[in-house]
UniProtKB/TrEMBL annotation:
Location relative to the cell: Membrane
SMART domains, alphabetized: IG, IGv
Protein name: Epithelial V-like antigen 1
Residues in Ig-like domain copies: 24-141
Signal peptide: 1-25
Length: 199
């Protein structure tokens, strides 16, 4: 009985550790936030790494959407061998497969983005026996016009400051060059006068 318990414990530990390895084997990467202008298109990038060989038949990518203010996700796109586009609903005629599972890319493109597309998008990848524990999530914000991020504003401010400093430096160099030429011309004129007086 004791020997049997040891065998069962060993088998259970092996299964648990195998399961942990499989979950950790699949890694999914997405941007945390994206911004899109109403009426344009945007690529929702989702890349992944697996410890197992990738296969068009076995590897699958699923996308789901959770609108702002909701708590339930709605699946709307699936890829396994070929793209299963949404037959109806919010994303009908708005989704295009733009990934390549053999290169670890499960991206999609949303066309003619609408304000109703505001929300969180989840990308889940399965490559049995590797499975993914957590889906990659992207928060999409649809706006009327592109707004500058804090980093963009900072970059503009720094770039503007550098531009002003360069302009001042160029003006200073030009003024120095002209002054030196004037001084050289004055010296030459005085030399000519001195020679004329001597003659």
């Amino acid at each position: 009985m004791r020997r049997m318990w040891i065998y069962l414990s060993s088998a259970l530990c092996a299964l648990v550790f195998t399961g942990v390895y499989q979950v950790e084997g699949m890694e999914v990467f997405t941007s945390s936030e994206l911004e899109a202008v109403n009426g344009t298109e945007i690529r929702l990038k989702c890349t992944f790494k697996s410890n197992r060989p990738l296969s068009e038949e076995r590897t699958s990518v699923s996308w789901s959407f959770m609108p702002l203010g909701k708590t339930k996700e709605e699946p709307f796109f699936h890829y396994q061998g070929h793209a299963y586009l949404p037959p109806g609903g919010l994303f009908k005629d708005h989704v295009v497969w733009s990934g390549d599972v053999m290169k670890g890319d499960g991206s999609i493109t949303l066309q003619d983005v609408q304000f109703s597309f505001n929300g969180t998008y989840s990308c889940q990848v399965l490559n049995p026996p590797d499975i993914q524990g957590f889906a990659g999530e992207i928060k999409l914000r649809v706006v009327q016009k592109v707004s500058f991020s804090e980093i963009g504003i900072l970059a503009i401010a720094v770039g503007g400051s550098i531009g002003v400093i360069l302009l001042i430096l160029i003006i200073y160099i030009v003024v120095r060059v002209f002054r030196r030429r004037e001084e050289d011309m004055t010296i030459e004129t005085e030399d000519h006068r001195s020679k004329d007086q001597v003659l």
